[in-house]
């Protein structure tokens, strides 16, 4: 029986000719990631093993991005703890303010992940790197500790759902609309324990930024990973960002899938997810009028340069509705600089937005844009759970940068062609 | 291992943001985390929960963020076991890795109500609802996971080599 793309990578990573769904394997890791929330717990577990160092100083990445720049004394203490650990263990990929970015925007940009890698990260959105044709998945702090110690992680080999894409997006529609549309179709546990494998001629019409956004939210359908085939765009991206050689794997022609879902990209509408689950999706033009208090554009899901461009193109020469707090979060320092040089930030600031340093901040109700009781936000982030961005009685609508920017101008959730 | 406690019952898709909201993630101390466990959907939980009590949830329990603080908060609040129809995969790994017993059983979840007394025999995978006078058998964990659990979690299993 043939293997899926994910199974091929896991077979290679565990030194076997083939693996089958349901099998438990121990896999060698190409990268182990943690952030300022999950790494302190991992350090506590790591220290129980009394080891002198991590398995490979070049294969651990620690990115303090959640409550940074330090939100309060407690988060400053947590960051100090992981900084001391990173320096003490000579972790090569430790990034502080000035060079830090939101982890899942930063690592591909730094060339730390290439196709064929096996990556674990103590952050659920680690699945982002499936865009590069890597197997990457979120795990917890104890798994991170074990990974830093041994360079290995156990996995149960997943089965897969194949998403066969055809066609091209219509105007303003992006990867965010597609992934929200898919989660709406299959539900927040629709791919539980499984791989989401994207394929078909439509893949070529997706930009790398689209693919990062789509793979990033595989976890919101419960998936273990989301993965794209490696094509010319992937190889070009990897060549531009990394000195490492990609290892290209493709699904076998006779690979078995639990389900095959065909999607014509031309039929995907501008989509939002209403509170309080990412599966509560609706086409924007079918929605009732929802007034908004805050708009957030950025995050590991949508803080890349094409996301900022999409928003700037709509905001240019216009004003955000008075009273709608519009906050922009670029993913990394490099993206920040590029958006500045290309004039996107000028467009945004003149429209009445504020531009923040790269941080996960408001996405998880951490800081830099927390919601009060009764407030409504439209956000390009990834979760709209109860209390996710602040008060338990606040509401979050998930959307693309284009819809978020249009909504900032209108003061209610709307499509870009209406503003 | 035999566990016994009263039931706290919740619905489907109980996410890690409601198990422990992000604003409290500046500590890794289970007892500190427990003070705010479930607070966004059940303000009474932290006050009413007693050592040994059991959380019962629907499908996809523990979905969302990878924060290990979620099972740590549950464990720190004294909860002895979580029974659900299904678990989100990162929560599942985290619970196994830190030694929080978890079981999947649709029927036990359907029948359980808040305040019921449930006894769990983790070795044999048997759940008994004493209040309802019903017994349920769950699928045993695969041997691979049993070895981690019996070692006392992932780190101990690595230390033992």
Concise description?
The complex is a heterodimer of chains A (419) and B (161). Chain A contains 13 helices and 18 strands. Chain A is an alpha/beta fold and 419 residues long.
Written description of the protein model:
- The complex is a heterodimer of chains A (419) and B (161).
- A five-stranded parallel beta sheet of chain A has the order 4-3-2-5-6, covered by helices on one side. A five-stranded parallel beta sheet of chain A has the order 16-15-14-17-18.
- Chain A is α/β, with parallel strands linked by helices.
- In chain A, helix 10 crosses helix 12 (344-351).
- Chain A is built from 13 helices and 18 strands.
- Chain B is built from eight helices and seven strands; from the N terminus they run βαααβαβαβαβββαα.
- Chain B has helices at residues 16-19, 30-34, 45-48, 69-76, 89-98, 106-111, 143-151, 154-159, and strands spanning 2-9, 54-57, 81-84, 102-104, 117-121, 126-129, 134-137.
- A seven-stranded mixed beta sheet of chain B has the order 4-3-2-1-5-6-7.
- The A-B interface holds A 24, 37-38, 40-41, 44-45, 48-49, 66-67, 72, 74-75, 77-78, 121-124, 126, 138-143, 145-146, 149-150, 154, 188-189, 192-193, 219, 222, 224, 277, 364-366, 383, 385-388, 392 and B 13, 15, 17-18, 21-23, 25-28, 40-41, 59-60, 63-69, 72, 86, 88-90, 93-94, 97-98, 142, 144, 153-155, 158-159.
Q: If strands are numbered along the chain, what order do they take across the biggest sheet of chain A?
A: 4-3-2-5-6
Query: Could you name the ranges of chain B where pLDDT drops below 50 across 5 or more consecutive residues?
Result: none
Decide which structural class fits the backbone of chain A.
alpha/beta
The share of residues in extended strands of chain A comes to 15-25%
Described by strand count, sense and barrel closure, the largest sheet of chain A is: 5 strands, parallel
Task: Outline the biggest β-sheet of chain B.
Answer: 7 strands, mixed
Percent of residues in helices of chain A comes to 25-40%
Rg of chain B: 15 Å
What is the N-to-C order of secondary-structure elements of chain B (H for helix, E for strand)? Answer: EHHHEHEHEHEEEHH
Give the terminus-to-terminus CA distance of chain B.
Answer: 24 Å
List the uncertain runs of chain A: none
If helices are DSSP runs of H or I spanning 4 or more residues, what is the number of helices of chain B?
A: 8
Count of extended strands of chain A: 18
Oligomer, anyone? heterodimer
Largest interface: A-B, 49 and 38 residues
Estimated helix fraction of chain B: 25-40%
Shape of chain B: globular
